[in-house]
Amino acid sequence: MSLLDALQRSGVLRPVDLALAQALQRIDGDIADSALAAAALASHAVAQGHAAFDPAAAGELVDASIDWPDAAEWRATLAACSMVDRPDADAASDESTPLVLEDGRVYLRRYREYERRLAAALARLCVATDGAPHADVDALHARLFPAGEGDDAQARAARRALDSTVMLVTGGPGTGKTTTIARLLVLLAAQARARGKPVPRFALAAPTGRAADRMAGGVRRVAESLRAAGIDAELCDALPTQASTLHRLLGLVPGRPQARFDRVQPLKVDVLVVDEASMVDLPLMCKLVEALPDGARLLLLGDRDQLPSVEAGDVLAALVDACDAPAAANAPLAGRRVHLDRGYRQTDDLVLEPVADAVRRGDAAAALSALRVGGGGLHYHEDALDPLAASTREALLAPWRGLRHCSEPREALALVNRARLLTALRDGPQGASQLNARIELALAGTQREPYFHGRLLMVTENSARHGLFNGDVGVCLPDVHGAPIAWFDGPDAPRAFHPGALPAHSGAFATTVHKAQGSEFDIVLLQLPAADTRVLTRELIYTGLTRARTQLHVLGPASAIEAALGRHARRISGLARRLGAA
Ligand SMILES: Nc1ncnc2c1ncn2[C@@H]1O[C@H](COP(=O)(O)OP(=O)(O)OP(=O)(O)O)[C@@H](O)[C@H]1O
């Protein structure tokens, strides 16, 4: 049996992966079977979040017992194939070849080009900044970061960012990324003034609408507190008050690959701050960085320990590696990262640090011990496999009962992020979909209306027409005649939609951890699967538990934690290497 047949039989390939292999065979009837299989696997790899397929790691990509070819021989066959280009590292690949072989990895040409173009665009932005330090700016820096650069990573981050055009600020939740960047923007406004230049055009953006709103809210709060502390009002007024999604910023419309702003028609922005950078995939990051004008500053904020983007990439991890690479001519990002590791959240909030830290380190014994000790809002329900069972049922349902008595849209929307059940899986008894249906039944009974009072909905596709985006969550309330209306937050006021007119959506009491990225909830119940699965990774657990603000319930066996912490959500990508990392 050929390798392609074996893959087809295993059922892992999507029709689109097979269609690519079949198209190549039609063009070249003599093409080697292993090259066809590599094409299908390169396409499959992108759907699994990789930028390319690595013949030496085929077993990690495909969960089936397949007799894989020797990686070196496989690559040699590919190198000799007419459908595979092998361009020099900085050169564009041949548009007539669908595949590229580079550093032993097999790319769909488009993804190799995204990597190459992104690396080139970043290198273009990494230029030396002009001008000497200014006494007024130094004085303001000392006032905004009184702890000083010796003791305070936030102070160091701001100082470094004043002198860099591209900068990464990484850190877990509550380590002050937003606070630091807002203060930095005040410093940049002061720097421009000291140099007799106009206030820079600032833009704030994030991959999701919720993350953008949270960021804008954080920056507005910092502006208020700085005004109250007597910082020059003109500088505080320079801070942006709104943030947009990356799609909106770039003018990307669903179904159209071309953005409104690009290399030819750049964004009218001098300083762009991107939050939740771990969620940004390779094509989007490429389009974003290419659309920045020469001389612009780019500040990326994110948490490397979180799940990588669902779509191809793991861009943030690659950029972190590139920043941490030794300084060299081919390493434009070297030294351009500051990591914030001190948590500043209120002490009466959830005490998450010991467990989050152990999970980040992959120390299962320490994570389990921290979970079992509990306290400070942390509860471990070891061996609980069903969140609707008696021991956790009330913790799960109580936060949503209030929604059933709430008739004011603003009041109801304020409760939308009160609680969430997060799960690793989409399907099956422990999957988001079935759990959601059971929660709806428990809350509203068997006679419930499809859009019952208090039902949470999540939009599952982008719809520019509605101004609703994948992941937006709303709530159903009856109108004065008792007819259901779905309410979603809007920039100025809640927005009402007839449920029948909504874009694709699902229930939202339970969602996958992936869908919860970029959001936070007061109460999180994190259900771990009974049986081990490949989606269960260290990053998934870390992302799930760091969504909680005041109360976290972890449900599931110790074995699930042990299995998860031993597995990374590793993504195949050549971006770090392209940017000078080993
Ligand atoms: N240097 C500091 N001193 C005191 N409090 C601080 C400091 N830095 C941040 N905080 C406070 O810590 C909290 C979290 O800060 P911030 O929102 O900036 O963190 P973040 O890393 O952006 O978090 P998130 O992951 O939620 O985006 C805020 O209440 C902020 O006021």
From TrEMBL:
EC numbers for this chain: 5.6.2.3
Entry keyword annotation includes Isomerase: yes
Location of the AAA+ ATPase domain: 163-345
GO-annotated molecular function: 5'-3' DNA helicase activity; ATP binding; ATP hydrolysis activity; DNA binding; exodeoxyribonuclease V activity; single-stranded DNA helicase activity
Key words, A-Z: ATP-binding, DNA damage, DNA repair, DNA-binding, Exonuclease, Helicase, Hydrolase, Isomerase, Nuclease, Nucleotide-binding
Gene Ontology BP, a term: double-strand break repair via homologous recombination
Catalytic activity reported: ATP + H2O = ADP + phosphate + H(+)
Root EC class: isomerase
Nucleotide-binding found in the keyword field: yes
One Pfam entry name: RecD_N
Amino-acid positions noted as binding ATP in the UniProt annotation, renumbered to this chain: 171-178
CDD domains hit by this protein: DEXSc_RecD-like (cd17933), SF1_C_RecD (cd18809)
Gene3D superfamilies found in the cross-reference section: P-loop containing nucleotide triphosphate hydrolases, RecBCD complex, subunit RecD, N-terminal domain
A cellular component annotation (GO) from this entry: exodeoxyribonuclease V complex
Function, in words: A helicase/nuclease that prepares dsDNA breaks (DSB) for recombinational DNA repair. Binds to DSBs and unwinds DNA via a highly rapid and processive ATP-dependent bidirectional helicase activity. Unwinds dsDNA until it encounters a Chi (crossover hotspot instigator) sequence from the 3' direction. Cuts ssDNA a few nucleotides 3' to the Chi site. The properties and activities of the enzyme are changed at Chi. The Chi-altered holoenzyme produces a long 3'-ssDNA overhang and facilitates RecA-binding to the ssDNA for homologous DNA recombination and repair.
Family: Belongs to the RecD family.
PANTHER family, per the entry: DNA HELICASE B, DNA2/NAM7 HELICASE FAMILY MEMBER
Subunit structure: Heterotrimer of RecB, RecC and RecD. All subunits contribute to DNA-binding.
Note: In the RecBCD complex, RecB has a slow 3'-5' helicase, an exonuclease activity and loads RecA onto ssDNA, RecD has a fast 5'-3' helicase activity, while RecC stimulates the ATPase and processivity of the RecB helicase and contributes to recognition of the Chi site.
Name assigned to this protein: RecBCD enzyme subunit RecD
Organism per entry: Cognatilysobacter lacus
This protein's encoding gene: recD
